[in-house]
Design brief:
Blueprint: H1 2-28, E1 55-56, E2 63-64, E3 68-71, E4 83-89, E5 112-122, E6 127-139, E7 142-150, E8 157-160, E9 164-171, E10 177-184, H2 191-195, H3 209-212, E11 215-218, E12 221-224, H4 225-231, H5 256-267, H6 323-329, H7 348-358
Antiparallel strand pairs: 1-2, 3-4, 4-5, 5-6, 6-7, 7-8, 9-10, 11-12
Helix pairs in contact: 5-7
Signal peptide: 1-26
Protein name: Putative repeat protein (TIGR03806 family)
Keywords: Signal
């Protein structure tokens, strides 16, 4: 009988310890966050931007939900001085892979790239106005484009399949008022001109390791973007420790040659490349190609005639006879204007950079 009672006591003690252990375990349990992002590849593109659940709170604040990561390339494409916010979403359980420093990351099916264009200090009340949000979504058969135009109340953006224009006036950082008819692209016609190849394939532009290999101010602190992508599970951990990277072309502390090469890479290389829209021209503006100045047209005869010019794409130390300079500088001669879309006015700072570069030879 004594042993029976003792066994019962031992059993009670062990059961009590077990309960305490379970209670402690429950107290330490932390739920794994789940992203609210909604992408049904059979149904996209949705009619409204809000249907994707990329952002929390008021839509216009563009506050990303868990699972949506902001990013920014070191050198940005010029689009009529529009400001931009960029985000990427990759489904749980899959990752992008490294495909060379100069090539876009190889993104898995279900990836969404989100890019919003807006202006600060718009007239008459010096408020922020969001114009459009562009989304690229990776499906099994390749990338699709979706264009969303924001309403006047800035509460929603709606799917648009045709291009359009909207008048906008704003005060720049020098208190100069600027006014344009902002061109919203057609996802059917315009998007593939920059994000497509002659063979019909489509691809992202800015998400190249050479563009992401620098720090970004995340909400939890500043960090190298490639490192961040790896940490959050967006990218396989096989990126080389050293990458030949572009620089911020606005950074005057960087060498002039690297700045102008970075500018051309961001603004010109996606068309002036093999299989690109400008493949027929003897120019290659990718950062890895422009180590050779001839790839940028220095001393190279042009393949087309421009009245008043002697036929050189870049005439060393002579902007007045450099066809490239004329084409990036003009905003009235739409036949020769470069880039042919994405801008309606001259990028003054970019033109000054190119002028300084031409005069350096």
């Amino acid at each position: 009988m004594f042993f029976v009672k003792l066994n019962r006591v031992i059993w009670i003690v062990l059961f009590t310890i077990s309960l305490g252990s379970c209670s402690s375990s429950n107290e330490e349990y932390v739920a794994v966050p789940q992203t609210p992002v909604n992408i049904d590849l059979a149904l996209v593109p949705y009619q409204k931007l809000s249907e994707y659940h990329f952002f929390e709170g008021e839509l216009k604040n563009l506050s990303p939900v868990y699972g949506v990561l902001p990013y920014r390339p070191a050198s940005e494409l010029f689009t009529d001085y529009a400001l931009k916010k960029r985000f990427v979403f990759i489904p749980k359980g899959v990752k992008a892979s490294y495909n060379g420093a100069e090539n876009s990351l190889n993104f898995p099916i279900g990836t969404a790239l989100i890019k919003t264009f807006f202006y600060a200090n718009t007239l008459p009340n010096l408020t922020t106005r969001i114009i459009e949000t562009r989304i690229m979504i990776r499906r099994a058969n390749g990338w699709i484009f979706a264009e969303y135009v924001w309403n006047d109340d800035q509460t929603e953006a709606y799917l648009q399949t045709q291009g359009s224009q909207t008048a906008i006036s704003w005060k720049d950082e020098n208190n100069i008022i600027k006014q344009i008819n902002y061109k919203i692209p057609s996802p059917v016609v315009d998007c593939k001109r920059c994000h497509g190849a002659i063979n019909g394939s489509r691809f992202p532009i800015g998400l190249k390791p050479q563009n992401l290999n620098y720090s970004f101010p995340y909400s939890d602190g500043e960090k190298n973007q490639l490192t961040k992508f790896i940490e959050v599970g967006f990218l396989e951990d096989n990126v080389p420790s050293t990458i030949e990277s572009v620089v911020d072309y606005n950074d005057v502390s960087k060498p002039l040659n690297l700045r102008v090469r970075s500018y051309f890479d961001a603004n010109c290389s996606h068309c002036h490349t093999d299989q690109g829209e400008a493949d027929v021209f003897d120019l290659r503006f990718a950062y890895t190609k422009t180590i050779d100045p001839q790839e940028m047209g220095v001393g190279v005869p042009a393949q087309h005639f421009v009245p008043g010019y002697n036929g050189r794409i870049v005439q060393p130390n002579n902007v007045g006879q450099s066809i490239l300079y004329y084409r990036v500088n003009t905003q009235t001669d739409t036949y020769y204007m470069m880039p042919p879309l994405g801008r309606t006015i001259t990028h003054k700072e970019g033109v000054q950079l190119i002028e300084q570069w031409i005069n350096s030879f």
